[in-house]
Every structure is written in C-alpha cells, then in structure tokens.
Amino acid sequence: MKRSGGFTLIEMLVALAVSSLLLVAGSTLLIQTLRAGDVVERHTGDVRALDVAHSLLRDDLAGATLRKTRAPNGLDAPQAFTGGQSLSQPLLAFTRNGWLNPAAADARGDLQRVEYFVQEGRLLRRAWLRPDPVRETPYAERVIADGIDSIGLRFFAGHSWQLNWSGQAESLPELVEMTFVYGEGDELRQVFLVGGNG
What mean pLDDT is reported for the chain? Predict the structure, then answer.
C-alpha cells in the first residue's frame, strides 16, 4: 500500500512545539537585549554628566585666584576662596581666571566669580559675568550633577586636611577633595588641584 504525501498530526504538533519554543526564546532574548540597551544608555548618560561635572570643577579650581571679592549681597567682608559645609553659604566660592573672551568679543576681563552649592539633591554651578558681582549682576546657573544625597568636602594645605577653608586665609588650599554620596549608597571621590598647584 502506497502512503499519500503530507504530515501526520503528531509531526504537526512536534513542529508547532519546536516553533513555539524558538519564538519564546527569541522574544525573551530580544526583550533582555532591549532592557540591557536601556540600562547601558542610562549609565552612559550618568557617566557623561559626571565627566562634564569633573571637567568644570577641575577647570574652575585650577584657575582659582587669591583675589578677594565681596559676595553679591554686598554685606559680607571680601573673601578670596571659601569652602566647607554650611547651610547658609555655598560649598565653594572663589574668583577664577582664564575665562576665555575670544577676539575680545565682550567688554570684560578674564576673571569670573564662581560658586558651587547643593540644592534639592543637585550640585549647581553659578558664574557671574564680573568678579565683583552685585545683586543685579547677571549670572549663569547650571546643574552639573543630580541625584546627590550629600557631598563631603576637604581641603589640603601643608601637611593636613581641613573641613573648612576661610575666605580670609592668605593662601589657597593645595587640593580640594569632594566625595559625592548618591541615593544607592554609592560614593564617588574626586581630588582637584587648586590654582595650578603641581
């Protein structure tokens, strides 16, 4: 007896089962790949933001000068370089040089007043258009780090570390160490040279 062409019911069920397994495995792999891509993209964005923050801090602190200026409120005594943990004061406040002015496009010098402070889990950089700002002096403000629980700050001079740096000091610290603490308990410690030291 001659067999007619076609598939038996068992062969069809086996083929459907194998196809189903391959489809499930393929879709699971695709979903995991997309999720991993999202995680990588998010972490790449975080690393890029930290790189920008590090570059700004490095450049600002390397250009720090001992020039005393008044705070924009006009009340405090002139200070050169201040830093430390205080609720009423910025983390860091100083005048920096080296602010580029290509082809003297703006009527200004190369000095700039800069402050760093923490507000609602963000590290902000505020820079004035003049080194001796008043309340009406325009400034640019930029968020350079986000998702911060706290920032530890230390200043190295001579042979020891200090937690605060007085604006009345007759010198700049040699190094500034900043420790960023994030929500997951992660810490990032960075050390910066001040005023071109080293």
Answer: 83
**Residue 159: CA atoms inside 13 Å, Cβ hemisphere, count?**
0
**Is 143 within 8 Å of 81 (Cβ atoms)?**
no
CA dist., res. 92 & res. 167, Å (int): 10
At residue 155, the 3 state secondary structure works out as strand
DSSP 104-133: G-SS--S-EEEEEEEETTEEEEEEESSSS-
Contacts of 50 (CB under 8 A, 6+ apart): 145, 188
- Whether this prediction's pTM lies above 0.85 is answered by no
Report which DSSP code applies to 55.
H
Phi, psi dihedral angles at 107 (to 5 degrees):
-85, 80
Other C-beta atoms closer than 10 Å to the C-beta of 24 total 10
pLDDT at 176: 93
d(CA 45, CA 64): 29
Strand order in the sheet with 92-96: 81-83, 92-96, 112-119, 122-128, 139-145
Q: Do 95 and 80 form a contact (C-beta atoms < 8 A)?
A: yes
